Amino acid sequence: MAYVRKNVRALTAGERRRFVNALLTLKRRGEYDEFVRMHIDFYAADGEKGLRTAHMAPSFLPWHRRFLLELERALRRVDSSVTVPYWDWTRDRTTTSVPWTKDLLGGNGRRSDRQVMTGPFAYATGQWTIKEGVTDGRFLTRDLGRSAAPLRLPTRSELQWALDDPVYDAWPWDSTVRKGFRNKLEGWGAGSGSASWKNHNRVHRWVGGAMLGGASVNDPVFWLHHAFLDLQWYRWQRAHRRHRYLPAEPPRASDAQHRRVVARHQKLPPWDETPDQLDDVSRIYRYA
Amino acid sequence: MVVGVGGVAVGAEQQAAAGAARPSRREVARGLLVSAAALALAPVVAASRPVHPAQADGNSFDETYRGRRIRGVLVPVAGRRAADGEWRITIDGRPLHLMRRADGSWLSMVDHYTSYRTPLEATRAAVDEIGPRQRLRDLAPDRLGGGHADGHSGGHAGGHPGGDADMGGRHGVRA
């Protein structure tokens, strides 16, 4: 029977505690850092050569869906009642709302060095030492709202702008494409500056600190953020029932994107599953 | 272990794809070694020129930005046009890995969700994000020595020696 992923604001005190404890257990066992490394390893940019799976590519959504499932399975081996909650950043928008509470992910980083000082992931607890970070800092960092150059979380209408696009993705299937649900949600815009950070990218930037870098998985909010994005894929599918993951077929040899992206029925590394197989996960979980 | 869960036998074709999808640690390590070699020479060159004022041409930069020494040099790669060399960048002597977007802009390991017009801008932006008293982590020992009990490397790599010979550097830099 399918289990339920809930809005993090709806978790009971007991559910919050069990979710946090399961994360801390994976961290203690060294499993969590494997997830951090995996995300680093699979970050490929589109201005270079090679296959892109996790970012700047159509498989951004199925790759992260599968990545979340992997984490969720690990959590549920620790505690079978746990599922990954989602953070609706169109609704919980301040630096003190959920999930930034002491019983969940803890609060903002302090001003001097952006170190998270509260909650179960604060360094002083001894339970969350950063081992696979971009810098040699051993503590989790955040800069909620980006103090030096403030920005706002994406709005409901910005998210809707992505959801309203009936086409899943479009050629050249990368960070430069201006149409299609996938990149409007992933959020690569033209050039630099505030206009270039939309939805997914903008949230990484709003959280800041660890979430801004290649080792963003070090902040557990990564999972809550990506669960919400995964929910958007489900919502998009429901809104555009005649549309599906694209490309349906691999780009031809004459195409610059040949062997650069994963088509609907191709295996999505590192897993033995295709975007098509990850299209419908209603037998595994559903969102409440 | 991450991949053990989804760990499944994969066909040869898929292994090649998996190889192309992830950076070879060996490749990354080699990049860092070359980088270290190039930088070992750099101080000799740098000593003969002032650190201030900042200098930047199209092929290199060397300046102190917010108290950090940032240096970058475009290193020619055999068999390629000059502009297609590799950027070797350091912040206070530690390598900073850049990646290139299809629109020609640059993003760094520190700042993965925004891109910048030039390697210098991306490097300065990385300095902006690195907290006080923190330094870039030198990934080389891990990458070189397989210092981790690295289960997932063995797992999802599934063995792909040379599988990514044709891929761009991930956190290595290829212009």
From TrEMBL, chain A:
It comes from the Bacteria. Keywords: Copper, Metal-binding, Oxidoreductase. SUPFAM superfamilies: Di-copper centre-containing domain. The keyword Glycoprotein does not apply. Residues 55-72, 219-230 form the Tyrosinase copper-binding domain. InterPro entries: Di-copper_centre_dom_sf, Tyrosinase/Hemocyanin, Tyrosinase_Cu-bd. Pfam families: Tyrosinase (PF00264). Its cofactor is Cu(2+). Coiled coil: none annotated. Transmembrane segments: none annotated. Belongs to the tyrosinase family. This is Tyrosinase family protein. It comes from Streptomyces tricolor.
Automatic annotation (TrEMBL), chain B:
It comes from the Bacteria. It holds the Pfam family MelC1. Residues 138-175 are annotated as: Disordered. Residues 144-166 have a biased composition (Gly residues). The keyword Signal applies. This is Tyrosinase cofactor. The keyword Signal applies. InterPro entries: GriE/MELC1_sf, MelC1. It comes from Streptomyces bangladeshensis.
